[in-house]
Amino acid sequence: MSHDELVRDRRHLHAHPELGFEEHETAAFIAERLRSLGLEVRMGVGQTGVVGVLRGPDASRTVMLRADMDALPIEEENDVEYRSTRPGVMHACGHDGHVAILLGAARALTAAPQAGSVVFAFQPSEEIRPGGALAMLEDGLMHNPSVDAVFGLHLISEAPVGSVRVRSGPWLASSDAFQAEIIGRGGHAASPHQTIDPIRIAASVVTALHSIVSREVAPLDVAVITVGTLHAGTLANVIPPSAALGGSVRTFDQPLREMIAKRIEETVLGISRAMGGDARVDHRFGYPTSVNDAAMSSLVETVAREVVGDSFSSCDLSMASDDMAHFLQRAPGCYFGVGTANEARGLTAGNHQPRFDIDEDALPVGVEMLVGVVKRYFERG
Predict the structure, then answer these.
(1) Which residue out of 126, 197, 357, 359 is catalytically annotated?
(2) Rounded average pLDDT over 225-245
């Protein structure tokens, strides 16, 4: 697939973004491309997911390549010819590039079939928890054919275009969310003694939650607790009856993850009750840690050194999360990064920002990486 074709596909997708589990036009576009290659195509996998299968002569060996395809509820601010045509919806995380790259890899691998089979999985709704990976797995994605290894890439705006980043072991953090309702007793702002002020309680709760990591997590362990929402009241002279707050938890260690969940509930309930109120806490475990298999990471590193030479490097742990983790739990694999930044062209905005864009020279690098990984996997046996 030529550079121009990759760019054309990516720009079409960028101009027509769709939110999670609403990717109907995107899915139809992908399915048409896959059918034109003569692949087996299944639609509606995990609601709006699309799967293409390239059968190889050795039916006992299958590699899966995955790309996510949903956009974000962000109003685009880029002044480009391919800017989003949908108000309030934008590809601000590179998923349009992921899809274009995987379509390019499908074209290249169809033209040069491998010893085994290749599954091309286009996943919906990575941005919305619980996400589309679990939905696709529930629909039997990694069976018929049974997947032996899984690979995927993420375009990363922190790395220069033409670079590849790989990390063996944990790379992306688990991601959990909590909501808490603090229950007090409302009243007049002039008579606070007659109330149980939930805002006062919430202020103490927020401070205490942010101290869990600094005082209860070992200094060499990694964790983040962020309270991202706090809502209470409607008027300045009214003490409300309740307050609501919500937050996010990120870590790499399952026992630590469970300990933090327990301590959040204990902290919210304990402080609320100690200050005369009460609370309800809902803690939801989300995406697990993305853990790359050592052998598969070594394979990707070998290919990266061939594709980008000295522009390959290992990458640090990231507190971002991705439901690619669910696939990596079910088969050995590797999730890696391909750089998109170009400071000279002003392409430096980070993911989830209204000015996010990529240097499209990253697209053929992504294709070459995925195709090379599949070839090397089957060569190694």
Answers:
(1) 126
(2) 98
Residue with tokens 């599954």: 119
Tell me the C-alpha distance between 53 and 40, whole Å.
Answer: 5
32 counts as catalytic? no
Dihedral sign of CA atoms 76, 77, 82, 85 in order:
positive
Specify the residue for token string 């919806």. Answer: 89
- What's the pTM? 0.94
Asked if the model's pLDDT at residue 284 lies above 90, the reply is yes
Q: Which domains does the chain have, with CATH numbers?
A: 3-171+289-380 (3.40.630.10), 174-287 (3.30.70.360)
What's the pLDDT tens digit per position in 306-337?
999 999 999 999 999 999 999 999 999 999 99
Which member of 9, 23, 70, 322 is catalytic? 70
Active site residue 126: yes
Q: Cα separations (Å) of 254 from 112, 260, 334?
A: 42, 10, 20
